[in-house]
Amino acid sequence: MKLTLKVWRQKGHNDKGSLVEYQAKDVSPDMSFLEMLDVVNEGLIKKGEDAIAFDSDCREGICGMCSLVINGKPHGPELGTATCQLHMRTFSDGDTIVVEPFRARAFPPVKDLAVDRSSFDRIMQAGGYVSVNTGNAPEANANLISHHTAEKAMDAAACIGCGACVAACPNASAMLFVAAKVSQYALLPQGQPERAKRAMAMREAMDDEGFGNCSNEYACEAACPKDIKVENIARLNREHLRAMICSDE
Ligand code: SF4
Ligand code: FES
Q1: Does the N terminus or the C terminus of the chain have fewer Cβ atoms within 10 A?
Q2: Does 62 contact ligand 2 (Cβ within 6 A)?
């Protein structure tokens, strides 16, 4: 395959940035999108030019590091697929592909396609954990949890913290991310002791970081590579209201 890439290049936070055109030749349909960028970068390095900066780590859809807006869509055109698992066979020979970073005030640019998503880390530090010492693993049937509830909690826990929901949202809201993190604990017995404190602290941290609020666009759910559902946002709102009315800590 031969492709034309229009890639966002930006030297740093204070640089204006612009789209720069590159030709990608001999692209295998079996390459992932990131492998295709690796090949383009090898060509740039050979010519003594600056390689395109972009984030990745696991390249298996697990870590949430990859973060490209491809043809206007966070993680590209395939539903439920992270950029690292998007294959070039999704595109056609001769296509022009526009590649941009996740854009949001709370994700300041670092370089080219890489943005700083440490705002998510600070939201997690505010309450996205269980701080009680649970000791050794308990007997499996000691805490009875219905299959339906366990499935809902595990579905929420599938969030990889990539930030595509923020990039897709016209308000740059992080509600789907926070909702997933609050839900995975709120649904399970282990999450009950800090339930109210967690919902309050994570929502407050989200607002402090400059993320917008939810206006029911559903763009987050469509962009999410892990199919996190907006019903979690409704749960987050209920958890927050519950925490304001009856704080349990
Ligand atoms: S909710 Fe989905 S899109 Fe948002 S951070 Fe989690 S995995 Fe990424
Ligand atoms: S590189 Fe880890 S999810 Fe894409």
Answers
A1: C
A2: yes
pLDDT single digits (tens) 179-238: 999 999 999 998 999 999 999 999 999 999 999 999 999 999 999 999 999 999 999 999
- Tally of domains within the chain: 2
Domain co-membership, 135 together with 241? yes
Amino acid at 56: S
Domain that holds residue 149: 118-245
Query: Is 73's C-beta closer than 6 angstroms to any atom of ligand 2?
Result: no
| Smallest CA separation from ligand 1 atom 8, residue | 162
Determine the distance separating the centroid of ligand 1 and the alpha carbon of 230, expressed in angstroms.
11
Domain boundary among 79, 111, 143: 111
The contacts found for 146-155 with CB under 8 angstroms, 24 or more apart, are: 149/187, 149/188, 150/188, 152/183, 152/187, 153/183, 153/184, 153/187, 153/188, 154/184, 155/227, 155/228, 155/229
pLDDT at position 53 is: 98
| pTM for this predicted structure | 0.95
State if residue 59 touches ligand 2 by the CB under 6 angstroms criterion. Answer: yes
Residue 141 has pLDDT above 70, yes or no: yes
Q: How far apart are CA 36 and CA 12, in angstroms?
A: 23
Same domain, 176 and 132: yes
| Same domain assignment for residues 175 and 209 | yes
Q: Is the CB of 61 under 6 A from ligand 1?
A: no
How many angstroms separate the alpha carbon of residue 153 from the centre of ligand 1?
A: 15
Pocket flag, ligand 1, residue 82 (CB < 6 Å): no
